[in-house]
Amino acid sequence: MMSRSLVFALILLIMVSIVNAIPHQLHKRTTSFSGCANLPPDTPVLSVTLSPDPVVQESTDTFTISGTLKQDITNGYSLYIAFVDDGGNIISSDIVDICKEVTCPVKAGTPYSTTQNVYVPRFRGTTYIVVGIADGIGTTANVIACSTATA
Known about the structure:
Residues 33-151 form the MD-2-related lipid-recognition domain. By secondary structure, this protein is of the alpha+beta class. Helix content is 17%, strand content 38%.
């Protein structure tokens, strides 16, 4: 009789543990992109969706990027997808020559979209995903669209 009570108590404890864990397993955090800091407020924000979402470190993620820009995309403009640490250091980046994928120029007001497979690096701490269209990197770059999110 004692062993049946012990088995019953053990089963009850296991069931409570499983029931407590279920809501946490079903909760999915999605990545939310917004405009980039330090750019004019009228800079277009790119729409970015990820698959899988959230990103999985040391694997490939599919980025679907779209937006309608206020400036033409011409030769010299590239799509930048970067993982940046809290100190502003680039951990990893992919640079795509837009005009090798679509016919340039892409006139202002014309919807632009692309899908890119990007390797997600290993990172620690706060890391940002930056997606932008620009004619270079640094303070002299002309950024014509941008989005950022916390990884």
